[in-house]
Q: What sequence folds into this?
């Protein structure tokens, strides 16, 4: 069940597209920044932000700003869980073991950001 009931049936497709385009203009950059902080990967943050707006097209939220940010955070959490299950969080270790080289500070910082993005708010606060 969704937190906000959408206005999907009350508006035509064209009006819905226009309204979501306005939301995109207003909130896209903020969502990408939030998702980048959660994932540590700019391209992936862009992809997740795009998914937020696809979902907004499917069910236009009645209270858009909190809905957009809640969906973005949920997508980031789900993605973090999926990454752990698929072993994407271990790529850094595999690369270092195969090449025998220690990763540079940029690679390590990105891995830490990605790992922090998989944690819940309280766990992340405890580490920071």
A:
């Amino acid at each position: 069940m969704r937190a906000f009931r959408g206005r999907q049936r009350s508006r035509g497709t064209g009006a819905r597209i226009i309204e979501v385009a306005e939301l995109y203009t207003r909130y896209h950059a903020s969502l990408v920044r939030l998702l980048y902080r959660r994932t540590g990967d700019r391209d992936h943050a862009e992809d997740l932000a795009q998914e937020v707006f696809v979902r907004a097209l499917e069910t236009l939220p009645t209270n858009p700003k909190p809905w957009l940010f809640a969906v973005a955070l949920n997508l980031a959490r789900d993605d973090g869980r999926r990454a752990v299950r698929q072993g994407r969080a271990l790529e850094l270790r595999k690369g270092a073991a195969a090449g025998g080289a220690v990763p540079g500070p940029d690679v390590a910082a990105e891995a830490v950001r990605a790992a922090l993005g998989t944690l819940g708010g309280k766990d992340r606060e405890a580490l920071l």
Helices lie at 13-39, 42-58, 64-86, 91-99, 105-117, 121-127. Residues 77 and 119 are 8 Å apart (CA to CA). Residues 1-10 have pLDDT under 50 and may be disordered.
